[in-house]
Structures are given as structure tokens and as C-alpha cells.
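Working notes for the structural subgroup meeting. M.R. asked for a predicted model of this chain before we commit to crystallization trials. I am recording the input and output together here so anyone reviewing the notebook later can reproduce the run.

Input as submitted:
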Amino acid sequence: MTTYLVRRLLYAVLTFLGITIASFTLIHSVPGDPITFFMVRSGNRPIPPAVVQAIRHEHWLDRPLPVQYAHWLRGALALDFGRSTIDRRAVRTRVFEKLPRTLLLGGTALILSALIGIPIGLWSAARSGRKTERASAVLFFLLYSLPTFWVALLLMQWLAVKLELLPLFGMTSDDYEYLTAPGRFADRVRHLILPVITLAYGQVAVFARFSKSALTEVIRQDFITTARAKGASSAAVYWNHAFRNALLPIITLVGVSVPYMLSGSLIVEAIFQWDGIGLLYYDAIYARDYPTVMGLTVMTAIVTLIVSLLADMLYAFVDPRIRLAEASL
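Returned structure, recorded in C-alpha cell form:
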């Protein structure tokens, strides 16, 4: 197990370096820079060349790109991502300020989609070939095909504008500060419903289709036929034999879904004005705020790598063959 974890940690470090190098290069290759955005914001006011040069020097923009990356990496290893070129606040402070809001949104959507999608997928696999299973497969395909922005606008039009059941956007109402504790909780939940549905509906279809495929593949194996031949009940066959062997691909899907929720929140937060890291990412990219963009990229990469490492650990726990295979290498 120790060898397995050390090997995965080494892969994670190399992957992290590759992500940062690629992201740093791509961000600096996009036309425009923070100085251009700063000059646009200043309008018609002339900016002295000395001021422009000082700003470029402060953010290391007047150095070669490898030197800029080395300087950034040195600070990033100490969790110092510099200061935002928009408001001069520390990037780390801005990210940690917005992160809990995105985790609330993405975590709720992920848990909801898994709790709904996986049981439906397992139920469909147990009824393979029936009309209800085929109808559910068509429904999942349609859900997965619907564009996120279109679903968001449709939900806003019907549930918020026409029926006035839910708030249109934002995280809280205007009178939030004057509400009681239960009232604040209910208000936050009401604002959470539309973005959670928008973020989760596609993942419900993914979880359902993936878990159905995984379980269908397992129940075709010989050991399932043997268990049934020995007189085991259907519940025992599915729960004790099939489900555990179908867990590996489902664990993989959960690990992949976490970064998807973080990246997908960018569109959802921009539409619903949910003040999290997705909206912060959008504003930082628009303003060419290099320090904030890189800080958010590193945070997303770290979360992704941690989740992948946890998934690898669960692999080894669920299937001892993986531990034995790694130990033999």
C-alpha cells in the first residue's frame, strides 16, 4: 500500500508541474495583459510611461517568460500567489473568500446527482431490456445533451420570472440581514435551487448511464452466474457480488466529477451571479489578472489531484488486486 501511494504522489507532483507550466504559458499567450486592461479602465486619462513601466516591473511582466514562471512558482510553493491586478488584494485571500461558496454549490450538486443518478442506473441495469429501462435511457441521453446555459435561462424564465417561485439570481435577498436564522437558511436554500439544478441535471444522467453500464458489465461475468446457480437471491447477487465489483468505475466517475463541478460552476455562477470562484475566474480572465487566474488554476489542480489520489486509495481498498499488482512492480 505504501509503494502504491508513493507512486501516485510522484505522479501527482509531475502532473501539477505540467499543469502549471501549460497554464502559465497559455495565459501569457492570450492577447492583452493587465496593463492593457488598466489603461482601458483609465478611459481618456493619459498614463505616464513611467507608471506603466513601474506596474509592469512590479508584476514581473518585463522579464522573460521562464523567469516569470520561476518567480511565480517560488511564491506558489509558499502559497503566495501575489496580488490581484484589479483590487491589489492578495490572491490567496480572494480565493479562500470565494471557495466556500463554490464548494457549497458544487458539493450540493455533486451529492444530489450521485444520490439520484447511481440508484437509477443500478435500477435500470437490473431491468435491462424492459420498456422502462429503454425509456430511461432515452431520457438520460436527452438530459445530457441539453446545453447548460439554455437550461439555466429556461429555469429562470419559468420558475423565477413567470411563476415567481424562486429568486432570479444572487446568493441572498435584499432583506437577508434583517431575517431570523431560520429565515436566512431558507433564503439561502431558495437561491441555491436554480444553480444546483443547472449544475446537477447533466451529471444525474452521467451517473445513471455510467453506473448502469458498470453493473451490466459485471452481471454478465461467470461468477454472477455461479452465484445464481447456487441459489442466491437476486438482492444478494446484486448487493454482495455485483455492486462491489462495479464500484471501481463509479469511483472513477466521482473523482472526475469533482473538477467538472468546479469548472462547470464558472458558467453557472456567471449566469446566476453566484459570488464564488467561478465568477471570480470569469472576471480575472476578462481583466487579464494573471496572478488571480494562476491562483485559481492551482487551486483547481490541487483539488483535482487530491480527489484523484483519494480515488486511487479507494481503488486499493475496494479491490486488493490493485495493491498486489503495484507491490509486484
